[in-house]
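does this look right to u?? NAP version
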Amino acid sequence: MRHVAPDIASTNPPAPETLAGWHGTALVVGCGGIGTALLQALGTRAPGLQLAGSRRHGHCSPLPEGVRAVALDLTNDASLAALPQQLADLPPLRLVINTAGLLHDGPLQPEKRLARLNRAHLERSFAVNAFGPVLLAQALDPLIDRAQPFHFASLSARVGSIGDNQLGGWYAYRAAKAAQNQLLRTLAIEWRRRLPLACVGLLHPGTTATALSDPFQAGVPDGKLFSPDRAAGHLLDVIASLTPEQSGSFWAWDGQPIPW
Ligand SMILES: NC(=O)c1ccc[n+]([C@@H]2O[C@H](COP(=O)([O-])OP(=O)(O)OC[C@H]3O[C@@H](n4cnc5c(N)ncnc54)[C@H](OP(=O)(O)O)[C@@H]3O)[C@@H](O)[C@H]2O)c1
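got this back:
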């Protein structure tokens, strides 16, 4: 049994901005470990936001009370095209946090060496981790009001940093997260012209005790494995602090920038 770092509020970095005054709709894509914790934290910290949470297969397990359940598979174009209609009766979009990600699934496992690479697994990882976030932005773009502030945050991973890659391995996941970073950096540059109040952030949550990290927690030093609630608190602190001038950057859970 791994030791999960305690939820000590005082260990969170101070939030320079508060979410309490945010209004509109917040959509959390992917209600896995971190996504569900984000919805719970938003319910407390951002009472002015109407919350929506997406799952691939609709409402497969209970979402926190008051959260609109939305069906969305980021790898399916028809599903992406149907997303705006599912949000049509909600207030204007204020915040989107994409938490969808894929590291392992049955035979798809992080590759320890070149011999383990598999074309189908590379394509699947890229479909979720790289193409999904930018196609999500494309689907939501018509709903964004140019005159209103808007935050689009997507969970990346420190292992997606090319400059920080010292250990190798995990080819598909690393490369797909790096590709996500480039795609959303490019999006941020386009939105700076078209949507000057928008802010795109790429965020590393820290190693967090969820199904995604479960098989790989043995090497995490004691006290460095966050609970989903703690990770969600850190992520919201970072999101609240980001301004349009910082759009298109890559941040760790503690508010420190990560090299590309
Ligand atoms: N946990 C960590 O230590 C860690 C570290 C660094 C980065 N991250 C990143 O943080 C994010 C959240 O991870 P987590 O730890 O919360 O993992 P998780 O509990 O496994 O949740 C992953 C979510 O991704 C969703 N998803 C997968 N494929 C999808 C698709 N095709 N369309 C829409 N949603 C899809 C899943 O949806 P369903 O529930 O509908 O299947 C699930 O909600 C991921 O991007 C991950 O790469 C996590």
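The chain has six helices and seven strands. idk if thats expected tbh
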